[in-house]
Here is the input.
Amino acid sequence: MTAQPSGASTTLPSTPRDLAELVEQQRRLTLTSFTYEDAWELGVLLVRLAREREAPVAIDIRRGAQQLFHAALPGSSADNDAWLERKRRVVERYGESSLLVGSRFRAKGSTFEESSRLDPDRYAAHGGAFPLLVAGVAGVVGTVAVSGLPQTEDHALVVAALEEFAAR
Here is the structure.
């Protein structure tokens, strides 16, 4: 499997302050609802933001096990689809963003790959997958994921889209 770049100039989150910020993002980006139409609008928004940044990404949005939106932009590849799956599985298992999960392991002085005891061919705690949470609904309703950029940039793209989407 092709390694996803980690971003040479970007420090990965691992401090208590970093973790608190990632937890706050999830709290702040809890939606009031999440419908088929919402998935389409969020997906189109992500495509627009990625095109503006000339980002070679693949995008995946799901509600439960059902894929509601998928797009692959120029420069992305089938490897990005594999990364989307691996990151999504982390969100589904832990109920938190893939970046937050990986950051929790780093904060403990380890890595997800070393300490999770999960198959790294099936799970990747790299930034870019985010839980879709709905107010008043217990648990994760779905996931939104991006792959193709360094992991902190994948995460930032998803957060930017969710912020714009939630502000509508």
